[in-house]
Design brief:
It is a single chain. By secondary structure, this protein is α+β, with helices and mostly antiparallel strands. The protein is 31% helix and 19% strand. It contains 3 helices and 5 strands, in the order H-E-E-E-H-E-E-H. It has helices spanning 4-9, 54-74, 116-129; strands at 17-20, 24-28, 38-42, 79-83, 94-99. Helix 2 crosses helix 3 (116-129). The chain binds guanosine-5'-monophosphate. Guanosine-5'-monophosphate binds at residues 4, 15, 27-31, 39, 85-89.
Length: 131
C-alpha cells in the first residue's frame, strides 16, 4: 500500500498542488504552521530523507529551492524557512515555511485554520510564480 504522500503525488488523493515534475511534487501542508506552509516530496517512496540516493536527495533540495523562490514571491516574508521532521508521515519531505519571525518555525504551536478557498488561492499564487 502506497504512503499517503505517494498517493497525493499520484493524484489519487486531492491536495493543494503547488508544483510538480516527473520526480518531485510540492503541495500545501493541510495543517499549516504559517500561511504558505508547503511540503516538497520525491515521488520515490522512501521514509527517511537521508536514505534517499544522492541524486534524488540533491534533486529534492534543488526542486525545493525553486519552490521557495515562488513561495517568497507569492507570500511576503523575511525568509523561507526549511525543516525536515518526518515523525508523522513515513515518506521523505521538506517543510518550507514563509517566516516573519522565529516562531513561525514552531511546529508545536496551534495550526492555522484556513478555508478551502484560502488554501486554493495560496496554492494558485505560489504555482503562478513557480519557474
Ligand atoms: P512530519 O512527518 O514532518 O512530522 O509531519 C507531517 C506533516 O504532514 C504535518 O505538518 C501534517 O500537517 C502534514 N500532513 C499529514 N497528512 C497530510 C495530508 O493528508 N495532506 C497534507 N496536505 N498534509 C498532510
Amino acid at each position: 500500500m502506497a504512503s499517503i504522500f505517494a498517493r497525493i503525488a499520484a493524484g489519487e488523493i486531492p491536495s493543494y498542488k503547488v508544483a510538480a515534475d516527473d520526480r518531485f511534487f510540492a503541495f500545501l501542508d493541510i495543517n499549516p504552521v504559517a500561511k504558505g506552509h508547503v511540503l516538497v516530496i520525491p515521488r520515490a517512496e522512501v521514509d527517511y530523507i537521508f536514505d534517499l540516493d544522492d541524486d534524488t536527495l540533491a534533486g529534492l533540495y534543488l526542486f525545493a529551492k525553486r519552490v521557495a523562490r515562488a513561495l517568497k514571491a507569492a507570500i511576503p516574508c523575511r525568509k523561507v524557512g526549511m525543516a525536515v521532521l518526518g515523525l508523522e508521515v513515513p515518506h521523505a519531505h521538506i517543510h518550507l515555511v514563509p517566516m516573519q519571525s522565529e516562531g513561525d518555525m514552531d511546529f508545536r504551536r496551534e495550526k492555522l485554520q484556513l478555508t478551502a478557498e484560502e488554501m486554493q488561492a495560496i496554492a494558485s499564487s505560489i504555482a503562478a510564480h513557480f519557474e
